[in-house]
Amino acid sequence: MLVCSKSRTSGSLKICSKSIIFEPDDAVKPILKILLKDCKGIGAVEERGHNPFTEASCLDKLGDQTAMVAAILQSRLARTCFDKNSFQHVTENPHMECVAEMVSPLVTNAGHVCITDCNLYFQPMNSYPVSFCGLEVFCTENDLCSDIYLKFYSTKERDELYYYIATFLENHIAECTAESYMLQWQRGHISNYQYLLHLNNLADRSVNDLSQYPVFPWVISDYSSTQLDLLNPASFRDLSKPIGALNTERLERLLERYRDMPEPHFMYGSHYSSPGYVLFYLVRVAPEHMLCLQNGRFDQADRMFNSVGETWKNCLEGGTDFKELIPEFYGSDSSFLKNLLGLNLGRRQGGGRVENVELPPWASDPDDFLEKMRLALECQYVSEHLHEWIDLIFGYKQRGSEAVAAHNVFHPFTYEGGVDCDSIEDPDQKIAMLTQILEFGQTPRQLFVTPHPQRITPRFHNLSATPSLSSMSPSMESFEDLTEESKKMAWSNMNKLALSSCLMLPDDKIVVCSSWDNNVYFYSIAYGRRQDTLMGHDDAVSHICWRDDKLYTASWDSTVKIWKCVADDISSNKRTQFDLLAEFEHEAGVNTLDLSPAGTLLATGTKEGTLTLWDIASPLPLNQLTCHSGKIHQVAFSPDSRHILSVGEDSCLVVTDVQTGMLIATVHAEQEQRCFCWDGNTVLSGGMSGDLSVWDLLSSKVIHKIPAHSGAVTCMWMNEQCSTIITGGVDKQIILWKPEY
C-alpha cells in the first residue's frame, strides 16, 4: 500500500536493481517509478497492529543496490511452498505443487503452482531465472479466468501437472498433432484461420509471449482499389515467397550482401515477427507494453502504425522491414485499429495527429476491413496456396538448403537450437544473448520436414447453358475434389495405388477402393489411414458395389464375388472379417457390374463384350449374349429393372430386355462412350473427347452436348432425385453439376 498525506492506494511494490515501481490495483491510476539514486532512504511503516514490512525495514541499512536485491530475493525464496490459506475452499485436496513462472506480455513472474481436485493456482514470488519448459492452459469462453502460460524448471513437474489437469479436472484434453490438423484442414473440416492458430500453438507461439506471438500472413496485395476483387489473383500476395523476396530489386541487393557476408550467412537483418512488430500493430490497445518496451516513450509518430497501405508498401520496399501480420487482422475485434483510449501518439511531419489507422479504400470502416480480410483468408486462391506459406514458416523451407533456395534465411539466433545458451558461463553475456534473441524475434518450431500438401478445394467451370430440362451448369456448392490433391493426403500408401473403382459406405466414414493390384482397400476418414484390406482375387479388381452390408467385387480373374461384412460396425477402426457368400464365374475378365434396384438381379460385362444376367440366389446365368465387339465399359439397370443399358469400346449404346435377354436397340455414337446415367428413356453419357451427351433413345439421336472435361470422361454419378450429377475425367478434374429447369 502507498500512503500519502491525504490518501492511500493499494497495489504492488516492485523493487528492482535501479528503481522502485508501485503499480496500483486501480488500472486508471498511474504507475509510479522512483529511481533508487534519488531516494534518501526507505523506512518501515507499522499500521493497525500489522508487523513491519521486514524487507523494507532493512533497506536503509544496505549500502549498495546489489546487496539490497540479493536480500529481497533471499527473503522471497525462503517461502518455498504454496500458501494453502489461498485455497477457495477448505475442503480442497492438493495433488501436487511446484515452482514455475507465469508468462504475460513482457512480464515473467516466478511463483508456486498448485493443482487441487477443484482448481489450478498460481502464487507469485521472486526467483532467479533458470532454464525452463512450458505449459499453456486454455480456458473456455464461458470461464471467468483467462488463459495462462506457465514456465517450469523441470520437465517432470510440467508433465506431472499436465497429468493432474487431464485426470482430475473436467477439461479433458484431446491430443492433436500437426498431421491430424493437416488432414482436417485438407478436407475442409477446419478453416484456414483455425488451422493457422493450431499450427502456431503447436509451434510454441502464444499471445501471452510477445517474443513468440502467433504469426499470420499478409494475403492481400491490393490496398489502393475502391473495390476488392477476391476472384482476381492479382489481388493477392505470392504466398510461395517470404516478404523479403516479394520485391525483386530489393532481393537482389539483399542477395549481393548475403554472398559477400562472412559466416554466419543470413539474408535479412530483421525478422518477420518480434515484440516490437507485435506492439507496432497493438499500440492502441496495449500502450503500456509499448511504453515498457520503449523505455516509457512511444515511437516517432511517422513510424507508428498509421496506415495499412503504407505498412504494406514499406514491407515491400523497406530495406529492413519484413514483418508479417498477427491473428488480430483476421479476427472480429477491430479495436486495435482505433484510438479508443484517446492516446497522445504524437503528430506526423505533415502536422496531423496519430489517431485511427487509415484503412484501404475498399473498406468502409474497421469492422468491414476485418470482414473482408477474413473473406480473403478463406477464399479459394488463398486456400490453394496457403500450404506454400506454411512450408516457409513451419515447414521444410524453414531451414537448410531449401530455405536458401526459397530466400528464407534469417539470423542464426532466431532458430530453435541456433544458440547454446547453457554453454555461456558469464551471466552478463548469457543475459545479453537471451535479451538479443527475445527482442530480435524467433522462428517458430519446425512442424513439417516434407512439402505440405495442398488443400482439397472445389474446382468449377464457368459454362453457359440455355434453360431447358436437359441443360446443366456446374454447381457452386461446396464439394471436395478427390482427384490430384487426394494423392497428397497422408493416408498410408494410398498415393501409390492405381484406383479402378471407389465408393463411400452409407455412414460416410469409410472409403472403399478397388485396385489393379488385386486388392480392395478400406480407408477410415476419421483416422486418415488404411483400416483394412480384402485380398480375394487373383487379378485386378475392376469394379465394386455395396448393397445391404454386402460387397460385390468384379475382377479380371473372370469372377464376381459377394462378401458379407461380419463386424457390427465396419467404421470402428478395427480389422473387419469378410465371409464369401457367392462366386459367379465367367469365360473372360469381368470389367463392370450393376445390381437391380431390388437387389435380386446382377448384370456383368466382360472384356470380350459379353453381357450376363444373374439371379443373386443362383450361380447359373439367366441370360448371356455378346452385345459388343470389345470391352464393355459400363452396364446399368433401368429404374424399373426391365432393361439394361451397356456401352463399350465399339462406340455403341445397347439396350437389352431383362426378361427375354433380347437386344432392343443399338445406337452407334460418333465416339467411344465410357460411362453414363439414364432414367430408362434419356441417357447422359461421357465420351472420349470429354463432352457430355444427352441421348433420346427413341430417336437414337443426341439432343444436347455439353463441354465438360479436357479428356475422356471416365466416371459419372447421379443422385436418386436426378438433381445432382458428378463427373470425373482423365484431366484429373471432378465437376459437380446441377440441372437447370
From TrEMBL:
Signal peptide: none annotated. WD repeats lie at residues 534-564, 583-624, 625-666, 706-741. InterPro entries: BEACH_dom (IPR000409), BEACH_dom_sf (IPR036372), BEACH_Domain (IPR050865), FAN-like_PH (IPR057496), WD40/YVTN_repeat-like_dom_sf (IPR015943), WD40_repeat_dom_sf (IPR036322), WD40_rpt (IPR001680). PROSITE patterns: BEACH (PS50197), WD_REPEATS_2 (PS50082), WD_REPEATS_REGION (PS50294). This is Neutral sphingomyelinase (N-SMase) activation associated factor. Residues 170-455 form the BEACH domain. Keywords: WD repeat.
